[in-house]
Fold this sequence. Notes:
The protein is mainly α. The chain has one domain. Helix content is 78%, strand content 0%. The chain contains five helices and no strands. The chain has helices spanning 7-31, 34-52, 61-70, 76-94, 101-128.
Amino acid sequence: MFWKKKKTDRKIEERREAKSKIASLMRALQTKEPKGVYKQFTECLRNFFGRFLNLNYKFTYEELKNEINKRKDLSEELKEKSHEMLDAMIVKEYAGGRITSAGLKSQIKELMWIVEEAFSKKEENEEKK
C-alpha cells in the first residue's frame, strides 16, 4: 500500500531541507572561496523558489521577481526582501559586482529569513481555509 503524505508533512520536509542546505552554505563559506559558495547559493535559491512557487522551468531573476509580485498570499515585506536580494544578485552576475564573504554571508542570512517567512505565511493561509 502506498500512503499519501499530508501537505503539512511535505511542507515540513521542504522547510527542513531548505534550512539544511542554507546551513551547509554557511559552513562552506568558512572554508571555501566565496565564488564557489555563491554558485551553490544561487542553485539553492533557484531550487527553493522553484519548489515554493511551483515553477517548472529555468527562470531568470526578472521572471522570478514577476512571479513573486503575482502572488497575493505573500507579505509585502517578503516580496520586498526577495526583490532586494534578486536585484543584488543581478548586479553581481551581470554588472560585475564583487562577491565577498561578508556580502554572501548577509545574503545567506536573508535567504534563511525568506524561507522562514515564506513557510510561516503558507501555514497561516492554509489554517484560514
